[in-house]
Structure formats: structure tokens, C-alpha cells
């Protein structure tokens, strides 16, 4: 069910299979954590063993980023396309809306998380937003107490990576939550503060290019993609030589 790309696990489930599995997890009161895997994280995990363990210990590692799908194809793998982090959040919101489940949102600036919550409630009127906390609240005991008082089915954490993944790992056993997802800057998008790329970029997997056009300062981060693919190709050739 998972494929290993340069030491990091990635789920081979497609989006529909993944959502069906997560819905079953919630109904069976299982605890699961979802992490988005992109080339930048894989490159960082190659150098940082602790980060690699943090990613691989998650329940579902979703292929967020066209580079992960390309790397799978280059290696003869079977990763079924992209499942972006914000796309997964949208899918979980739709799932919560269908089942009238509770969600909790933690992270980002106060005005961002609150506006995102208002917009989400309008779009998904049947789900229950059981609470929000901004990312400037650092008292872990207060955060856990607030979340546990309402016992949400799904917790979205927007603290940036790997801070959000560390928060989830360190506290999930004490939190009365079923599904944990680190969502990075997704609250900014749901609040309307940041716009997603046009549909053409989303469909072709070139959202990274749109972001680069809008924010040229991201060029250093985007260099991770060609470097990552070059490493995948080199590793593939080395493996072929060893088996020839």
C-alpha cells in the first residue's frame, strides 16, 4: 500500500480509496495522521533521519507535488497521481459535512483562522466547527484542554512543517481526535487571503510554476524539484547497473 521514494514512504492509494479508508478509520474510532509529501520534504528527510522517521511513522503519506508522481513513474512505481495537502483538507471537510462530524482548526493568525472558519461553515453547513485556536497560542496544556473539551473528529493544524507534524506526533495520544492533518498555509487559502492557482495550473500539476510567477522569491525552494528528479534518475541508473 506504500511506495518508498528515496527513503520516504508514499501511499499508493488513489484519492477515492484514501477517503474511503479514512472514513472507515473514523467510524472505527481509529487515530490516524496524514502528512503531505513533496520533493522538498524528501530532500530534507534524506539529510535528517529524525524528519524521515517523523514522516514514515504517519498513517497516510499523501503525494503532494507533481515531482513525487514523476519520481514514482521514473522508478517504475505505482503512485496514483497527486493528492495535495489542501485538496485532502477539502476532501475531509466534505466528508465531515456528509456525516455532520466535528472539526477543530489550530494555527495561523487569529484573523486568518477565524475568517477561514467562517468561509468553511458557509460552504459546508452541515459540519460542526467545534473550535479554533490561532498559532500564537503556545501553551500546549491549554491547547490540548480546549481541543479535548469538544472532542472533534478531525483536527487541522496549520503551524508550518515540520512544527505541525511534531505537534501532532507529540500530542495525538492524549488528544480525543480521530484524524490529524498538518495543513501548512491552507487556512490562508480558505480565508481568501491567498488565492489558489487557476484551474489550468491545478489540472496540469504546475501549481508550483504559478506560485513562482506570483512569488519569485520562492526560486530557492523550487530548485528542490529539479535536484530531486536528478537524484531519482541517478539512483535508478545505479540500481539498474547493480542488477545488470
From TrEMBL:
Q: Which GO terms describe its molecular function?
A: N-acetylglucosaminyldiphosphoundecaprenol N-acetyl-beta-D-mannosaminyltransferase activity
The first-level EC class reads: transferase
Q: Name one GO biological process term.
A: cell wall organization
| Record has S-adenosyl-L-methionine as a keyword | no
From which domain of life does this come? Bacteria
> So, what pathway does this thing act in?
Cell wall biogenesis; teichoic acid biosynthesis
Return the InterPro entries for the record.
Answer: TagA_TarA, WecG_TagA_CpsF
Q: Does the keyword Glycosyltransferase apply?
A: yes
Q: Which reaction does it catalyse?
A: UDP-N-acetyl-alpha-D-mannosamine + N-acetyl-alpha-D-glucosaminyl-di-trans,octa-cis-undecaprenyl diphosphate = N-acetyl-beta-D-mannosaminyl-(1->4)-N-acetyl-alpha-D-glucosaminyl di-trans,octa-cis-undecaprenyl diphosphate + UDP + H(+)
Q: Which UniProt keywords apply?
A: Cell wall biogenesis/degradation, Glycosyltransferase, Teichoic acid biosynthesis, Transferase
The UniProt entry, under CDD domains, shows: Glyco_transf_WecG_TagA (cd06533)
What EC number is given for this enzyme? 2.4.1.187
Cited function = Catalyzes the conversion of GlcNAc-PP-undecaprenol into ManNAc-GlcNAc-PP-undecaprenol, the first committed lipid intermediate in the de novo synthesis of teichoic acid.
The record's family statement is: Belongs to the glycosyltransferase 26 family. TagA/TarA subfamily.
Enumerate the PANTHER family for this protein. PTHR34136, UDP-N-ACETYL-D-MANNOSAMINURONIC ACID TRANSFERASE
Quote the HAMAP family the UniProt record gives: TagA_TarA
Report the protein name in the record.
N-acetylglucosaminyldiphosphoundecaprenol N-acetyl-beta-D-mannosaminyltransferase
The organism is: Paenisporosarcina antarctica
